[in-house]
Amino acid sequence: MNAESFPLIDLAGAPHARGRAYGAAVPERVARSVALYRGQMQRRGLDQAEQYRLARGFLPTIEAYDPAYLEEMHGIAEGARVALEDIVIINCRTEMMFGYETLDKAEPKAKREPDDGCTGIIVMPEAARDGRLIHAHNWDWREECVDTGVVLRIRYEHAPDILVFAEAGALARHGFNSAGVAITGNFLMCERDYQKPGEAPLALLRRKLLEAHNLAGAMAQVFGKSRLCSNNLMLSHADGEAVDLECAPDEVFWITPEDGLLVHANHWISPIARVKLRDIGIRNNADSIYRQRRVEAALRAKRGDIGVDDIKAALFDEFGKPDSVLRSPKPVSFESISATVATTIMDAAARKMWIARQPYLSRVFAEYTL
Predict the structure, then answer these.
(1) SS3 306
(2) Strand, helix or coil for residue 47
(3) Beta carbons of 332 and 345 less than 8 angstroms apart
(4) Which residue, 71, 99, 127, sits at the end of a domain?
(5) Which class for 331: exposed (0-12), middle (13-18), buried (19 or more C-beta within 10 A)?
(6) Are residues 219 and 70 located together in one domain of the fold?
(7) CA atoms of 42 and 82, how far apart (whole Å)
(8) Which of 6, 307, 311, 323 gets the most CB atoms within 10 Å of its CB?
């Protein structure tokens, strides 16, 4: 790996030992993640004591979802020499940053709206030049994350091995496993968000999907649990299948590829969802509409001959800059800077992932293998 790459961390063993090795491998990156989200929460008016109190409130939820994940978080905290509460904040940062006003309220009202985006692509084998499914993603979030990202290569005894990109200290963001299952995620919002406690914090849910032995098992995890807030999940399998799950806290709306393509940004697409829900996020992310359309149109024009170069070109589209598919840094709420932190392309059949760090500056991809 070079200076432009995210560090690769090999992990194995029991959850606590795995977590401890993770934290010890990149303590400086975990510290940056801690500083980022402490700062984000402080600018929302929550001091460290209040942050930790809210984080401790998530411990029963995490343990009920999977006790091994809580053990792993204990290990990460020990290895990186930070508090367990800090690791919880990193893993529950969406729920805490945008739902903190409602977590303790009897009559909650979600008020904080994210102002960032992501764009995801799945190209089915019949639309691809070489007949291989490709799953790709632009992760748009806080600019500081160009120095907090890591890639985890996790070896399991009783589950598929995993290659996953994550923020340092987090259990997962996007990636694939040795069984051929791949996932990426995009934020969504609706009026149901932050109204009732959820069973599956988003970072933990993504990790759980990557432990599935097949696509059906991954999908079952989504349909079987509630969430505190909405989220979009794009799932694929290397053998040539894909589905997009638009997840409200208490309901899931599904979309399947059309003409060999599946593209999603940050607005609800399912016709049923658009009738049943109110799209709150679109108010701060109207560019999502043309981002999704432009990427789909660019790839549809090459249908049957879509190569990795075409996917890169679509994800590097700068129409409407800085509010473009490839987001260059721009100020957003709470004195933050938003940007495309990383562009990821995955070929799960080949067990390879390519990631370009800070692609608005450098479009050099580093290769990671499982």
Answers:
(1) strand
(2) coil
(3) no
(4) 99
(5) exposed
(6) no
(7) 18
(8) 6
Cα 257 from Cα 294, distance rounded (Å): 16
Look-up of token digits 């409407």: 320
**Residue keyed to tokens 């040795």:** 178
Same-domain pairing of 94 and 151: no
Please report, rounded to a whole number, the percentage of residues in the chain having pLDDT higher than 90: 91
- What is the residue range of 29's domain? 8-99
- Whichever domain contains 34, its CATH number is 1.10.10.2120
| DSSP string computed for 156-219 | -SSS--EEEEEETT-S-SEEEETTSEEEEEE---BTTTTSS--S--HHHHHHHHHT-SSHHHHH
Q: Report if residue 105 sits inside a domain.
A: no
Check residues 114 and 261 and name the one with the higher pLDDT: 261
Segments in 81-198 forming alpha helices (H) = 84-91, 93-99
pLDDT in tens, 43-70: 999 999 999 999 999 999 999 999 999 9
What residue type is assigned to position 167 of the chain? E
Question: Per the structure, how many domains does the chain have?
Answer: 2
Question: What is the rounded average pLDDT of the residues 74-101?
Answer: 94
Question: Alpha helices, DSSP H only, in 245-286?
Answer: 271-276
- Report d(CA 159, CA 177) in Å as an integer: 9
Residue 64 is assigned to a structural domain of this protein = yes
Let me know whether 88 and 131 are in one domain. Answer: no
Which among 213, 269, 263, 258 is positioned nearest to 237, based on CA atoms?
A: 213
Q: Is residue 112 scored above 70 in pLDDT?
A: no
pTM for the whole thing?
0.95
Integer Cα distance of 150 and 164 in angstroms:
8
Which two structure tokens, joined as six digits, stand for 175?
Answer: 């990636």
Do 91 and 226 lie in one domain? The reply is: no
Does 95 lie in the same domain as 122? no
pLDDT at 109: 42
Distance CA(98)–CA(90), nearest Å, equals 13
Closest CA to 166 of 370, 6, 334, 320: 6
The Cα–Cα gap between 218 and 215 comes to: 5
Tell me the CATH number at 270: 3.60.60.10
Claim to verify: residue 351 and residue 272 sit in the same structural domain: yes
- Structure-block tokens of residue 272: 């049923």
